[in-house]
Design brief:
This protein is an alpha/beta fold. The strands form 4 sheets. A 5-stranded parallel β-sheet has the order 2-1-3-6-7, sandwiched between helices. Strands 8-9-10-11 form a 4-stranded antiparallel β-sheet, with helices on one face. Strands 4-5 form a two-stranded antiparallel ribbon. A hairpin with a 2-residue loop joins strand 4 and strand 5.
């Protein structure tokens, strides 16, 4: 049984999500403040975190940053903060998804299941991918650049694997989103994908402003260019 950690202070939303998650077969732990979240996170082990941004005693962004210092657990922000700058910030600090309120429960469940499934699937294969000085050990779920471990979120890791499995092939945004989420591509907009691409380039390219490996093909999509 997968265990979800929910950081949310809205009682009506907590009640609705509790019923939904338990109906889906998840075990649920709830915190309503950052202080409670710090205590529960220190004492428990979770398969996925669902975080609000605005809490009575602080920001979910700060909690996410602390988690990312020690863990790669999948993180989804579920919040009313729908400004583009907040979405970019949430993804840049390590979240794997950012869903704004109001939302559809079916979409939330699909994203949670897809994210959990991806994490599990990548832990069950013993293959590896290698090009451009990048090595991905699929069994361990880790990626290295020139022997140095890359700190990737689950979404960045999946993107990297997708591109490395299709060298030289132009992948449309629709193809990427379908593979990234294992569900309807319209669950994630193009702006979010652009943020993921930019964030991945920052971690793998020697000069992210002039990428050599992960290229943009104008009006078509992106491709993995094998340099060496």
């Amino acid at each position: 049984m997968d265990k979800i950690f929910l950081l949310e202070d809205d009682l009506s939303l907590i009640n609705g999500l509790s019923f939904t998650f338990q109906k889906q077969g998840f075990e649920l732990e709830i915190a309503r403040t950052i202080r409670e979240a710090d205590t529960l996170w220190a004492d428990g082990k979770y398969d996925l975190l669902v975080l609000d941004v605005s809490l009575p005693d602080g920001s979910g962004f700060d909690f996410c940053k602390r988690v990312r210092q020690i863990s790669k657990v999948p993180i989804i922000f579920l919040t009313a903060s729908d400004e583009e700058i907040n979405i970019i910030m949430g993804l840049d600090i390590g979240a794997d998804d950012y869903i704004t309120k109001p939302f559809k429960l079916g979409v939330l469940n699909s994203r949670i299941n897809a994210l959990l499934r991806r994490v599990k699937d990548f832990g069950q294969t013993d293959d590896k991918l290698e090009s451009n000085g990048i090595k991905v050990l699929l069994l361990q779920g880790q990626a290295y650049k020139n022997g140095q471990l890359l700190e990737l979120t689950a979404a960045e890791y999946k993107l990297l694997c997708l591109f490395m499995r299709n060298p030289g092939m132009v992948l449309s945004k629709e193809q990427i989103l379908d593979n990234l989420w294992d569900c309807e591509g319209n669950y994630v907009d193009n702006n979010t994908l652009t943020v993921y691409i930019r964030r991945l380039r920052m971690k793998i390219e020697d000069n992210p402003g002039v990428p050599q490996m992960l290229l943009t093909v104008r009006r078509m999509g992106y491709k993995w260019n094998v340099v060496c």
